[in-house]
Design brief:
four-stranded antiparallel β-sheet; binds adenosine-5'-diphosphate; 25% strand; alpha/beta; Rossmann fold; six-stranded mixed β-sheet; binds magnesium ion
């Protein structure tokens, strides 16, 4: 990955300017839900620049809903969504995608009936070049190149997740939001995916991963949030999050 390309679509991202630049994406006291049912009861989340940030919590905590608000699939009903310091509550997912925010949705980020290669091409529809996405995808995951004519629906779970990651990374995002990176995958495959995620964060992409099953996410993340019942119960270094994680999972059991 090329760090200098990451974030090129974002406003107000002049490097080296003082004071410290605003985080690439954040929610402040954000509330949101579906219809009249409020799911998020005023949450603060920050995507830390050039780091891996983890959002952990049991099933039903509101993690996916939070990602939906961050990526523009849902509008906050109260509070704020900030993109590089700009208040952008009304921006929709396409607009945020053009600003460099990419959302890898759980189980929905590849088209099963398209080939690997066509999945990559379609991912450039809101920006990005086809040469570039192929270069990124096939360099990061050579196995995808071997399978480029194969239908995505016939890939293994790990290969499908690689394709989903490649679709997000190949457009040189500023922010990559990933819902349940490890779900259903063997530990070795998960470790490989997290190694890639850590590399791209080092190259300057700000990565925000949501995980229900927490421990691996904590190992790779520098900052962690724990959520239960639509509220953030921990916000701090991932190294200190484990008690909050246990409390969240015990409370949900
Ligand atoms: N499209 C939807 N319509 C109505 N309720 C939903 C919808 N999606 C999720 N919910 C509800 O929102 C709550 C939080 O869900 P979700 O954000 O998916 O949690 P998590 O990702 O932490 O498992 C759950 O009670 C769930 O039933
Ligand atoms: Mg979820």
């Amino acid at each position: 990955m090329e760090a200098r390309r990451a974030g090129q679509g974002l406003p107000l991202l002049t490097e080296g300017s003082a004071p410290a630049p605003a985080p690439p994406l954040s929610l402040r006291a954000a509330r949101a839900g579906y219809g009249r049912i409020e799911i998020l009861h005023g949450i603060d989340l920050v995507v830390h620049r050039g780091e891996v940030t983890a959002l952990l919590g049991p099933n039903g905590a509101g993690k996916t809903t939070a990602l939906n608000v961050m990526s523009g699939l849902l509008r906050p009903t109260d509070g704020c969504r900030h993109v590089a310091g700009r208040h952008l509550n009304d921006a929709d997912a396409d607009e945020l995608a053009r600003l460099g925010i990419r959302h890898i949705r759980e189980g929905r980020s590849v088209y099963a009936n398209l080939s690997v290669d066509d999945n990559l091409l379609v991912a450039t529809s809101s920006g990005g070049s086809t040469d570039r996405i192929r270069e990124v995808a096939y360099t990061l995951f050579p196995v995808l190149k071997e399978r480029r004519t194969q239908l995505a629906g016939t890939l293994s779970g790990g290969e499908r997740q690689m394709l989903a990651l490649a679709r997000g990374l190949g457009v040189d995002p500023a922010v990559l939001l990933i819902d349940e990176l490890s779900m259903g995958l063997a530990p070795l495959v998960v470790a490989k995916l997290y190694d890639v995620v850590a590399d791209v964060a080092r190259a300057g992409v700000s990565v925000f991963v949501v995980e229900q099953f927490a421990t691996l996410g904590l190992k790779y993340a520098s900052h962690a949030y724990v959520m239960t019942n639509g509220r953030v119960t921990y916000d701090g270094p991932s190294a200190d999050a484990i008690d909050a994680v246990h409390a969240a999972y015990l409370g949900a059991a």
